[in-house]
Specification:
- The protein has one domain: Rossmann fold.
- By secondary structure, it is mainly alpha-helical.
- Helix 3 packs across helix 4 and helix 5 packs across helix 7.
Length: about 120
């Protein structure tokens, strides 16, 4: 999401997923926080998030527990709570996890990882 919003390499790949993608509420909150750190106003952050047309999925009990369960398997790569929530949401829904983080491709969690950058 950040690559798209910031016009970074790989952002053009993200465009192909917009309008038909899921994101956990944790991921959306993380993206919003990063945009605030970049100096965007509350209104601008909301506009950017709405513009992405994501189906935002709450962090319910099952997703929270699943996200916790992979902490040990992912800690060595420094994955954040949002990273783990994204991976586990993808696992629950049988969808690929889309990222710029190459470290995710090293994981053996039964989740297809699609990298947005070569």
């Amino acid at each position: 999401m950040l690559a798209f919003l910031r016009g970074e390499p790989g952002g053009e790949v993200v465009v192909g997923y917009l309008g038909s993608s899921l994101a956990s509420a944790v991921n959306v909150a993380e993206v919003g926080a990063r945009l605030v750190d970049l100096g965007l106003s509350r209104t601008e952050v909301r506009q950017y998030i709405v513009r992405m047309s994501l189906d935002i999925v709450p962090l319910d009990r099952e997703l929270a527990l699943a996200t916790t369960e992979i902490r040990l398997a992912t800690r060595h790569l420094g994955l954040s709570l949002a990273d783990r929530a994204c991976l586990q949401l993808a696992a629950q829904r049988g969808l690929p996890a889309v990222t710029a983080d190459r470290a995710w491709a090293e994981l053996e969690l039964g989740v297809e990882v699609r990298l947005i950058r070569d």
